[in-house]
Amino acid sequence: MKEQIKTGEHMKTTAFELVIFDMDGTLLNSMDCLTDWLYRVVKAHCSPSVTPADLIAAFGPTEEKIIAQFVPGELAKSCLDTYYDLCEREHERVQIYPGINKLLKELQKQDILMALFTGKSRRAAEISLDRLGWRSLFRISITGDDIIRFKPDPEGVNLILERTRAAGKRTIFIGDSDADMAAARSAGIIGGRAEWGGSGLLSAVTVHSDHQFATPQAVIELLLGKPA
Q: I want to staple 61 with a disulfide (CB 3.0 to 4.6 A). Which of 65, 122, 126, 149 is the partner?
């Protein structure tokens, strides 16, 4: 039987029971290095016409599924192993967006439940969580390895809601992409678009979000009512 969490134990005066975060492009300025690592591991085994932009367009599922789109099956496992090795060796290239640590600490201080929903693999997500000392911050982490249908499908969000028993109207999913906002809407929760990344790697905004945040401080102001 899957673990369920009583959100009532974490509630104070805030209107929010649960905050779900996307990872790359939301918490972490990592899209450039993720693209670089993927390109470096596939370029020797795929068509010369494949570009980094092609890999960016494939983002959404796990790294294994992305690599499989460009590399023959018998070579894909080796490429994936090399990718994880690059994640480990070059993780210092991954940067936390300014203000994110403050945001996470404020939510932790208020005992607001936090969850992570990322399309990347469990192994890749845990490399980052361990390197950044964030593993204990998120009560639940749902990765691309835990779901069948990827964002914008709400499967991952629904899993988090099921395990926390949080009320949808008191849950917000903070992410940077249309897929994140579409998943929030389909799951019946609040969607908050993180605009502080400005990486330019994602498609133009076409999906409505309930809130738009220029900075992590703006999230603090909404969730906790704290001024800048």
A: 65
